[in-house]
């Protein structure tokens, strides 16, 4: 795969490809790194023109005319030729078109090396090339290396010995090949430790120089907006550009956070709370938040694209292969949190503003993915029970605001919840959280399946409720098995319609409708509230379309049936906290204004 000069094939995309390489090449397969010597100066223009014609480039002749119409002067030391020449090789470095032409040449190399179903991967970024095998057999890597050398010899490319290296956990292969060997792969500003597959570092990052740079921003301007722009441009981008691949340690993030606080609170009263500063300036300059957001953006981008090396993998493998860790986390996952963890968030309510900010950014990202069909990753269905929304990299269920807020909190807060449910899978296949009131209903699943499998009995649903009296209940009767299941409706909504949707949802879940489609037996719904008509509805054949349409309302109600009293109390506390923050910000502004207007 070719990177560089192609949209959505940049440096970060190349790192993602390299990062996910171990999932296919095995834990101990080595990297063969090749860096061409003076690559741009040795590209032959006649062969480049043939490549453009073969690829059907519409402006290929324009490129040829441009390079032949311009004369060149030769320069060596202090001597410059007095006349111009029509050069036959060499691309202009700094020209915006040169990376695209380089990608065309490297496309031929990436297609030639693995030809004939040779099990090797060949990512390349401009003149930086990598080889690794996807087969345990070492001969395929040797064959790929010979083909690469033949390609370079035919086109006049060369490689200095110091620019060739083998990165592997063992040094035996490098000794046999007679090249430099190391247990760390240094490429495109990142270092991959072969002994620790999950460790990726930024070796060129000077943390102390970055700290001094952050300090200097406080002396440039008193305008907070100017300070924020300087921090984002000169400091935050330095350690967040490799989001999703490389991370800073917690100690380094804490050091940068202390410097950012000092830079923003300079010339302010000593009693100024740093949280108020981030509320006014913006949380995107906070190092921990910026790093988490960079990793989250990289993960969403990776899920939204259609990577050729990952198209046929099941979704659980795609999630398990994302080994990049967020700060203070072991893996990236959008999670649904239980009530106990939500209650614990009140102790860290000062992060609510950053929490909401990240949630809004999540909504924007998810909406871009879901609204554009070309960005969806519809993976192969590997088992029964997949809903009609297909296995997407980003499921529509992630758009629920409660789930987005908790996902943002899970990214920001150094807390590991006790009950985490991954939401990357579809709603019909992922496990549901079981509340205490529902544990007595687990036997309903087996009873309904036996009843439907027999094909000789109906399933009867009876519901009733009163919103004014505050009570609602439902029952499911299986006459063939002489069984009855009944329960009250949890939550504040005690209407008859809520009881109907609760009964229908429980019956459909127990029945596993995506697998059986209710095509045997009758399905009767006794409508007590007359919302569906006076007659008894019977569905002898229920298709997937009707069930999905009905399940939409069920899912909306399910979001409201989680302990709403807790959420209302939290919302009230959050509103009170926000009012307190506004008052604190006003007090801080009153104290800061004389300092800034001097």
From TrEMBL:
Lineage: superkingdom? Eukaryota
Residue limits of the Reverse transcriptase domain? 19-168
- Annotated keywords: Membrane, Transmembrane, Transmembrane helix
Xref: InterPro entries: RT_dom (IPR000477)
Give the transmembrane ranges.
536-559
UniProt KW Transmembrane keyword: yes
Protein name stated in the entry: SLC4A8 protein
Q: Which organism is it from?
A: Symbiodinium natans
């Amino acid at each position: 795969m070719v990177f560089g000069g192609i949209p959505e094939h940049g440096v970060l995309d190349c790192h993602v490809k390299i990062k996910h390489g171990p999932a296919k090449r095995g834990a101990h397969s080595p990297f063969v790194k090749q860096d061409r010597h003076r690559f741009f100066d040795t590209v032959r223009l006649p062969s480049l023109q043939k490549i453009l014609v073969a690829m059907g480039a519409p402006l290929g002749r324009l490129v040829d005319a441009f390079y032949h119409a311009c004369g060149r002067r030769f320069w060596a030391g202090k001597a410059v030729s007095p006349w111009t020449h029509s050069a036959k090789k060499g691309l202009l470095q700094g020209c915006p078109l040169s990376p695209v032409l380089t990608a065309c040449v490297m496309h031929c190399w990436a297609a030639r090396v693995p030809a004939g179903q040779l099990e090797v991967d060949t990512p390349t970024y401009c003149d930086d090339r990598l080889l690794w095998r996807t087969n345990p057999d070492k001969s395929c890597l040797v064959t790929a290396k010979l083909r690469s050398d033949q390609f370079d010899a035919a086109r006049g490319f060369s490689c200095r010995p110091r620019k060739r290296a083998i990165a592997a956990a063992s040094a035996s292969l490098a000794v046999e090949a007679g090249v430099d060997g190391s247990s760390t792969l240094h490429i495109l500003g990142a270092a991959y430790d072969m002994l620790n597959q999950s460790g990726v570092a930024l070796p060129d990052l000077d943390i102390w120089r970055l700290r001094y740079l952050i300090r200097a921003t406080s002396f440039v301007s008193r305008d907070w907006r100017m300070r924020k722009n300087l921090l984002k441009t000169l400091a935050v981008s330095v350690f967040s550009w490799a989001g999703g691949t490389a991370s800073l340690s917690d100690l380094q993030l804490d050091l940068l956070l202390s410097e950012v606080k000092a830079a923003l609170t300079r010339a302010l009263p000593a009693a100024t709370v740093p949280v108020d500063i981030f509320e006014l300036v913006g949380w995107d300059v906070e190092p921990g938040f910026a790093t988490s957001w960079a990793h989250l953006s990289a993960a969403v981008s990776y899920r939204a694209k259609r990577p050729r090396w990952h198209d046929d993998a099941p979704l659980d493998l795609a999630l398990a292969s994302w080994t990049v860790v967020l700060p203070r986390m072991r893996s990236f996952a959008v999670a649904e949190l239980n009530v106990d963890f939500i209650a614990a968030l009140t102790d860290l309510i000062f992060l609510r503003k950053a929490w909401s900010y990240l949630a809004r950014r999540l909504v924007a990202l998810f909406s871009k993915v879901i609204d554009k069909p070309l960005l969806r990753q519809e993976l192969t269905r590997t088992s029964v029970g997949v809903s009609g929304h297909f296995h997407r990299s980003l499921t529509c269920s992630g758009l629920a605001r409660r789930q987005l807020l908790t996902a943002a909190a899970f990214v920001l807060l150094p807390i590991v919840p006790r009950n985490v449910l991954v939401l990357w899978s579809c709603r019909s296949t992922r496990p549901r959280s079981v509340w205490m009131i529902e544990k007595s209903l687990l036997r309903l699943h087996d009873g309904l399946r036996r009843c439907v499998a027999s094909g000789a009995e109906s399933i009867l649903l009876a519901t009733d409720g009163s919103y004014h009296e505050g009570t609602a209940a439902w029952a499911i009767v299986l006459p063939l098995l002489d069984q009855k299941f009944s329960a009250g409706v949890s939550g504040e909504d005690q209407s008859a319609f809520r009881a109907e949707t609760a009964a229908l949802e429980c019956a459909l879940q127990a029945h596993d409708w995506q697998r059986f489609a209710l095509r045997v037996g009758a399905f009767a719904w006794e409508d007590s509230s007359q919302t569906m008509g006076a007659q008894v509805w019977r569905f002898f054949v229920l298709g997937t379309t009707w069930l999905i349409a009905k399940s939409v309302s069920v899912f909306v109600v399910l979001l409201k049936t989680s302990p709403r009293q807790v959420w209302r109390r939290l919302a009230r506390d959050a509103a009170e906290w926000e009012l307190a923050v506004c008052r604190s910000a006003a007090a801080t502004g009153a104290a800061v204004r004389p300092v800034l207007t001097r």
